[in-house]
Amino acid sequence: MKLAAIDIGSNAARLQISTILHNNDSVSFKKVEYVRFPLRLGHDVFNFGELTPESEARTAKLMQVYKLLMELHEVEHYMACATSAMREASNGHDVARRIEAQTAVKIHIIDGQKEAELINNVVVQALDDRQFLHIDVGGGSTELNVYVNRQKINSKSFKIGSVRLLEGKETKGAWRKIEDWVQENIDSSQGVVAIGTGGNISKLFNLAAKTTEEGTSLAEIERIRNHVASYSLDDRINKLRLNADRADVIVPAADIYISVMKWAGASQIIVPDLGLKDGIIQLVYAQLSRKKRV
Questions:
Q1: pLDDT, tens digit, for every residue of 229-268?
Q2: Which InterPro entries match (predicted)?
Q3: pTM (2 d.p.)
């Protein structure tokens, strides 16, 4: 059986299709298709407060493409979720309804708490009994979660993200609010390890020297950030071979990860290959399992 997730973020929209594998009593998810397209909805919303007709038309076209890909893969069930940009757009729900009428793809606009919950459901699998600070930086928001002994102790969503910073539209006092929250919720006497999710930290990690298979140091993330920042936008694309929609947001995103790690006193960061799309697929599978038991 194949399931799919569509994640419509402030910078890009992603489709992931996974096959469900059963081995005795265990279940795993094998990725068979992944497509990412840079819609950059956050540009509209953070500047104008709504989605433009042009962005709506591009999103509808992309949903039609993703629907066709799911049909070709014979996907049985899927879920499409939109996050910061569409939930903040004054016309977000109207746009979602029109796209559903046009493409038959239903878009669920989820709040920051639900977004964090879906990501946490997969991230927790990468944790042990130490204190972790999970940092997920999107285009429009940053989600922070504190774990001890694999249990979530606290969480908070902040209106600061890579696209929002690029556009100069972060909310007033956002940096101070994050710093205060981190210092209030991290027990420095226990030590803390950061765990990072999001496309930008994954790219930074790919460029970095590794301390473990899934980890690197704060110093190395800072080195890579400064290395990328030393190039012009054109050179980031042509010499560093970054996608255009990654080249302009990777430094603002790095600044968030680095700042949060410093405030928390975290010298190491783990970067698992997980994200919202994986959480959506697990949610779809859990819903199917519950229906079968009824």
A1: 999 999 999 999 999 999 999 999 999 999 999 999 999 9
A2: ATPase_NBD (IPR043129), GppA/Ppx_hydrolase (IPR050273), Ppx_GppA_N (IPR003695)
A3: 0.86
